[in-house]
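To: structure subgroup
Subject: Chain for Friday's discussion

All,

I'm putting the inputs and outputs inline so they're searchable in the archive.
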Amino acid sequence: MGYNLSIPNISSKSIKVRDMVFSVLAFEYPLTAKKVYNRIKDRYKSPVTYQAVYKSIKLLEDEKCLDCSNNEYKINKSWITDMKKFIISLESAYENKKSLNIENANYNSLGKDVNIVNKWSYYSSEEYIFEMLQKTIKDSKTPPKSIFIHTHHLHHPLIYSFNLLNSIFSKYGNIYMLIKGNSQIDRWCKRAFEQNLNPKILLGTNCTNNIEYFIFGDVVIEIRIPSSYWKQLNEFYSRYKFVSTMDMQELYLLFQKNVDVQLIIYKNNKLANQLKEEMLSKFRQVIVSKNKLKFVSFDLNGVLTEENTIIELSKFTDNYELVKEIITNQTLGKKNMPIAFKEISKLIKGISLYDIFKYANKIKLMDGAKELLKKMKEKKLKLSIITTGFSIIANIINVRLGSPFYKVYSNNLEFVDEFGKVVTQKYVMDAIKKNDIITMKKLFTNGKIEMVINKEEDKSKILKSLLKDLGIKINQAAAVGDTMGDSDIINTCSKEGIGIVFNPNLSLLEYANHLIDKGQYIIISESKNLMNISDLFK
């Protein structure tokens, strides 16, 4: 049976009718609806009507928060018991963040949509979850594309028919399963599962202690069972080396055993995405070790540098606010890239190459950039910069970082000399390499940009071409980006390789969570230190 766990507010002066009902019945019970109404009028001096009080009482009764006997109401003891269990569970989660054994799970973000369901056996708890999964697919206009499970042992092919498993799991495009056990039985179940449903399964992950999880959409289900039960299950799995010799009746009885099972069901998008991302990180580690990551592409602005260099460059003109607005909208995906850069080119006309050169040598690099790139270079990884930023700045940043980048792809500012003649990019770069200050002071932007990267898809095309030239497969590549300008290259890499969303703006963060829900391999790092993604490149 499920109980609503919205915690009543009984201390504030401005509270809802249902909370006033709770406040009255917390100290005096049982009471008729009329008496509850009178107590509310006396205590709160509220203009609330009897009809509103009665409606709230009946809703609370429907939600199993109140009991009614002989037209008198009191708070449901089962609700109180479950509320107590929930508070204890929540307290434990706050005090011991490793209760999930998923290091970064953030219980501080739990919403109000929490329910506790009590079941009498492991089997009955899974039946309940299976019903939820089927109902979600049936009722949702946009059902979840993935399901994430971590559990002590694989058992589904032994307990349930594949007709049932197919009817439930085949509707979810991607199935990810982290399994603590790695016994012969677990391995047999893994093979059986893979032959029928093609899930992604990792055994021996040590990802859970006494809690199991089902995660789909924005729903997180915790399965809590006493540790003594897991000990029995572990003992059974370790006893048999062959499935053919296993005592199936004993296994069925174990799953049907009368045991106190508690399902805590959270409807919380942020928590669900966080746990999915943590689970996917386990699979990424396997990809990195199995496929031997060989290539990483970096964006420039907001990834290798703390600031957006295009916006900052506009400070040499009177158009800073305009450029900032255009770039902000473009990086959020609200403005078309070609249109944005066409507008910008005219707004940054007349800046000397010397001013750009001086600025590029003072740009604050992202924390951890030098350390990470040094580490990656030692690992002999091929690195590139693929950015909509400007080539002059990108190349200077490359030199300042120790020239770790094999290739730099960027957009080119056009320059004219003192006679108004357009000069070549080679002429510009030669002046920079020779530190020819006299020449640099005579060159100025002419209000045009040569667009090497004119739309988001161009980054992916460059990546694929680079990989082809290097003889590297896409599943051996990663892309690091921070805005919607990087969305396509991150999507491309994360299908088989890894997409790394670093220091993201809100639009890319939402997009990354969408890719995670599709089962793509995404790492999200909301910090501003690149060393926080260094574990990928051990």
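Points worth raising on Friday:
Residues 1-5, 96-111 have pLDDT under 50 and may be disordered.
The two ends are 48 Å apart (CA to CA).

D.
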